[in-house]
Design brief:
The protein is of the alpha+beta class and 573 residues long. 24% of the residues lie in helices and 25% in strands. The two termini are 64 Å apart. 39% of the residues are buried.
Length: 573
């Protein structure tokens, strides 16, 4: 059964035979809403299996300053197209910028847009720009979504030039993983254009308009997974070559030469990373394999994501090293600062200094030289004799007093005492991004029961947790102690788990993790780990912070993915 999807309809079949999608059938006028709402600068080809429904050409007549729900104040209309409009607005309740899509309640696609927005909001994946509200009110339907002021559209990024290999790798990896998660929940995008991809200031890519952008334009597809996969291939192709992989120019990029068809990225631009170029062709040329390696085509985001993961990891470029300026001696350092040269001026540049005068050669000079040498020899001999005598005397005293050599003073004993266990008085999960993992399971990490665990959620990417900086728990030791070690039992083995201990100022610290005092850290593939500090740190509150987790299969707590569980957390100091 062939799969079919509107923007918010569940995918019926993920493995149906799919016809070619790389041939542009016809171009439709298309204004793409962007992060800042500007219309796109080129048409988007309509793919085989995709349909666009007709819509009225009028949009709601609203103006800047109009308020929705007495809360969202419209500030700037950034798109007006096909019966709907998009605005930058201000949420006066939370005092933050938001984006708003508006269309009349009697618009033929109003119900579809509402359903798409609500389905997208239920996904709750932070890799997508989140839908915050979807309302029908006063003959209007409006969808409120996040506004990311620090993000840059991929359109603007590509306008500056193609991406270097590591950045292009991150783009295709993150977008394919995110769309894999969306399709598992039955959600398609169908409008994955460069203006739908945002790069944040931290280098993460976020996708906006999941389901909603297509619903606003009435776009549906019989093969939604294939359509989204080919769109990701087009993004990767553009990132590598700074060219749009179709004949029509679009999104500020020139298209391919007319009549030649789809050509490999390395034939468009020299120096393209071979593996990434072949990956783009596998996603775009869904009706056949690439010519160079005969790899099978990628027809779903999951297949593409696995192909990316199978590639050798592309490392980021080494930071450019700038050699310090060559150190030069000045005339001041050579004892001739301010000395006039032939031109009559003073200079700070080095000058040639003649050889030093010869040593004294007179009879008085030779006598003085030999006298000084004799005195030095006598002094060295006397010092050596006194040192030897002192050592022999100390050796006799030590041999005659065996108790002195075997006993330790009170201070020595105190320095070498073993660490003592530190009792945990309480604990709470630490989630600065507002998304907890398992708050009810925190007490299981120190209840003495090795069979119970606090567990993270299952992540689609790893071992590094990409969608958030980390997960953790803060422990209260009841008072300040010199914390030196911690032992932790882990639920899952594998490559790999990375943990660290930090000194926090409270159970609800206001400072970020990177500003806390680090106590110890370690990476392991085993089911237990010991963290030992080089120097004990005095604190009452200890944060156990996890940034990397291994892959594990399905269990009663969560689906297969990158995850971890911890128990038997013990501190010593």
């Amino acid at each position: 059964m062939a799969e079919r999807s509107t923007a918010a309809v569940d995918v019926a079949d993920n493995s149906g035979n799919q016809p070619p999608a790389a041939h542009a059938a016809k171009a439709t006028a298309d204004g793409v809403d962007t992060q800042n709402g500007r219309a796109a600068d080129g048409p988007m080809p309509e793919k085989d299996g995709e349909r666009t429904s007709a819509a009225p050409a009028t949009a709601p007549e609203l103006h800047s300053g109009h308020k929705l729900a007495r809360r969202y104040r419209l500030e700037e209309c950034v798109t007006r197209l096909d019966g709907f409009s998009s605005w930058r607005a201000m949420d006066e309740k939370l005092r933050r910028a938001v984006g708003v899509h508006l269309l009349p309640a009697d618009h033929p696609r109003a119900r579809t847009v509402l359903a798409a927005a609500r389905s997208s909001a239920l996904l709750g994946d932070p890799r997508f720009v989140q839908v915050l509200d979807a309302v029908e009110e006063n003959d209007l339907v409006y969808v409120v979504h996040e506004w990311l002021p620090d993000a840059t559209e991929l359109t603007a990024v590509l306008a500056a030039g193609p991406l270097e290999p590591h950045e292009a790798y991150q783009l295709v990896s993150q977008v394919s993983q995110a769309m894999t998660a969306a399709h598992r929940e039955g959600l398609a995008h169908l409008r994955l254009t460069p203006s739908a991809i945002l790069r944040t200031s931290s280098g993460q890519y976020r996708i906006r308009g999941l389901a909603v952008n297509a619903a606003l334009r009435g776009i549906t597809s019989d093969t939604p997974q294939r359509a989204d996969t080919e769109a990701i291939g087009a993004l990767l192709y553009a990132a590598l070559t700074q060219r749009w992989p179709y004949e029509n120019d679009a999104y500020g990029l020139a298209g391919l030469p007319k009549g030649v068809g789809l050509i490999a990225p390395d034939q468009v631009r020299a120096g393209v990373h071979r593996g990434l170029g072949e990956l783009a062709m596998r996603a775009l040329a869904n009706d056949g394999a690439t010519a160079s390696r005969q790899e099978p085509p990628c027809t779903t985001p999951e297949e593409l994501s696995k192909a990316v993961a199978a590639m050798p990891r592309i490392r980021p470029p080494e930071p450019a090293f700038t050699a310090p300026p060559e150190y030069q001696h000045t005339t001041y350092q050579q004892g001739s600062y301010g000395r006039p040269l032939a031109t009559g001026r003073t200079t700070a540049q080095s000058v040639v200094v003649g050889p030093p005068p010869p040593p004294l050669q007179s009879r008085t000079g030779r006598a003085l030289k030999w006298g000084v040498a004799a005195l030095l020899i006598a002094a060295l001999g006397l010092g050596s004799w006194q040192l030897a005598d002192a050592l022999l005397d100390r050796s006799k005293k030590n041999s005659g007093d065996t108790n002195h050599s075997t006993q330790q003073g009170p201070q020595d004993t105190a320095d070498k005492k073993d660490p003592v266990p530190l009792a945990v008085k309480g604990a709470a999960e630490y989630y600065p991004d507002g998304n907890p993992q398992n708050t009810d399971g925190v007490s299981k990490t120190y209840d003495g029961d090795s069979s119970s665990y606090w567990r993270t959620k299952s992540f689609n990417d790893g071992p590094r947790i990409e969608i958030k900086p980390g997960v953790g728990i803060i422990y209260d030791l009841g008072g300040e102690h010199e914390v030196s070690t911690a032992s932790i039992a882990l639920k899952h083995r594998g490559d790999h788990t990375t943990l660290a201990l930090y000194a926090a100022d409270s159970m609800d610290p206001k400072t970020s993790v990177d500003r806390m005092k680090k106590i110890a850290g370690a990476t392991t593939k085993d089911s237990a780990v010991n963290l030992t500090a080089e120097t004990p740190v005095k604190t009452r509150y200890v944060l156990l912070w996890i940034t990397d987790v291994p892959y594990a299969g399905y269990d009663d707590f969560s689906k297969a993915g990158y995850k971890q569980g911890i128990t038997d957390v013990k501190f010593k100091g």
